[in-house]
Design goal:
Elements lengths: L2 E6 L5 H18 L15 E7 L6 E9 L10 E7 L8 H16 L5 E6 L3 H5 L4 E9 L2 E8 L4
Antiparallel strand pairs: 1-2, 2-3, 3-4, 5-7, 6-7
Length: 155
């Protein structure tokens, strides 16, 4: 059972910041072979969800995402992004849980704002299961097919 924590950027310890940047780089840059600037200037304005696996030895970051308030990335919409599960923790349902927790937090903190994401195209059905719908055509982002998706506010 992972240990879940919400933190602002300023609340992150250096070890936590290192762990989340290392996990994002491990998956998005190395595993997916996508050369891009992960540190995009949005982390300081984001709220970060970290899931640590403490079972069986040294704790490690098993899953992560960040949420952005309205207007930070999209005009009046919130966003979630950098959704990632560690290769060591795949197959445990953490991807679904991290997204569900992120959306629940957005619904609580910003109940009247839509949620807009840039999803990797192969995950379109996954996000549709959370109430997202595609907007526009598939596009290339850093060498990976993506699609913009929106989930209406839970007013």
């Amino acid at each position: 059972m992972p240990r879940w924590q919400w933190k602002t950027f300023r609340e992150l310890t250096l070890d936590e910041l290192y762990a989340l940047l290392a996990l994002r780089q491990e998956v998005f840059v190395v595993e997916q072979r996508s050369i891009y600037q992960d540190v995009d200037g949005l982390d300081a304005a984001s709220l970060h969800l970290l899931a640590y696996d403490d079972a069986g030895g040294a704790p490690f970051l098993a899953a992560y995402l960040r949420i952005l308030p309205p207007g930070v990335k999209h005009a009046g919409d919130t966003s979630l992004g950098r959704v990632v599960t560690s290769p060591r923790a795949r197959g445990l349902g953490l991807g679904r849980e991290v997204v569900a927790r992120g959306l629940a937090r957005l619904d609580t903190d910003f109940p009247t704002a839509d949620v807009r994401i840039s999803a990797q195209h192969y995950l379109q059905r996954f996000y549709e299961g959370f109430g997202f719908h595609a907007e526009g055509d598939v596009y290339d982002e850093d060498g990976i097919p993506h699609i913009e998706m929106v989930r209406a506010a839970r007013r």
